[in-house]
Amino acid sequence: MEKVVYEHVEVEKMLHRLDVWFLPFRWGSNIYRGCEHDCIYCNARYTHEYLGMQEGEFSHKIMVKDNAAIALDKEFSKEKWNKNLTVNVSTVSDPYQPAEKEFGNTRKVLEVFLKHHNALLVTTKSDLVLKDIDVLQEIAKTGFLNVCMTVTTLDQELSSKIEPRVPTVEKRLEAIRKLKGAGITVGVTAIPVLPYISDDEETLEGMIKTFSELGVDYVIVDVLNYKGETRQRMTKFLESNYPSLIPKYEALYQTDYCDKEYSKNFRKITNRLVKKYGVDHYDKMYSYRKNKDAK
Ligand code: SF4
After folding, report:
1. In a domain, 293, yes or no
2. Ligand 1: which residue has its CA nearest to atom 7?
3. Number of domains in the chain
4. Which of 61, 102, 246, 267 could be 57's S-S partner, Cβ–Cβ 3.0 to 4.6 Å?
5. Does the model's pTM come out above 0.85?
6. What residues make up the domain containing 34?
7. Does 89 map to a domain?
8. Nearest-CA neighbor of 131 among 108, 101, 97?
9. pLDDT digit string (tens) for 196-215?
10. Mutate to test the pocket of ligand 1, among 39, 45, 148 (most ligand atoms within 8 A of CB)
């Protein structure tokens, strides 16, 4: 495994605007640049290509924003900033990747959210989030917070192949249980589901039922997309593990997006399942202040 190198940088801004029509929030903030989790399907990689990062650097050369909390505090202190706007931490890197153990920048940033009572959505794939449960509980008491844990599959063997550096499925499920026990709103994103590998109805139902039994507030399920390096990385993965699926994937992914008919049918199944198990409350992802349409 290639060694991870940390580079320390200072930034002027921590907030960036997201103009993605299907997202229920308009602002994001990344505490680290790059992501050690190295998921093979990662769509965030292409966002770093424009920064001139070479192939592989995204997961092995991590920029640590040393002044992240100070810069965010300045932006939140501006008169024109509206604290009701939900900020997603993070959008193209995981705030609880291993670097956080060493540098603790995410915790410092959470303290800034608490200070300003700013609406917050934490998106992660790591049980390391539990180290900050005390701050998260405080934020939940005084403002809007929800934590969104990503669990793409319950199959640990598959997870180890596609998300090699992400904590185990069991650890993530346990983290969900503890966060819910602490009175925090928790959702799950099961994205991406892999066509013909983890997409059969029985598997999807087992997964959604498990999340529902943990008491999660919402579940969002979606299928794999191809962007940037994802096509090459997925093809390598298929060659080593599911060579017979290569022609089927070529047929499904003639563009960066999955075949429309396949996607429509997939959505029909998953929409029915999230309703059946009572985890279709996507509105819990938005601020209770109804700021989803705020600009
Ligand atoms: S955790 Fe998210 S950002 Fe990090 S490598 Fe995986 S998909 Fe990409």
Report:
1. no
2. 42
3. 1
4. 61
5. yes
6. 5-285
7. yes
8. 101
9. 999 999 999 999 999 999 99
10. 39
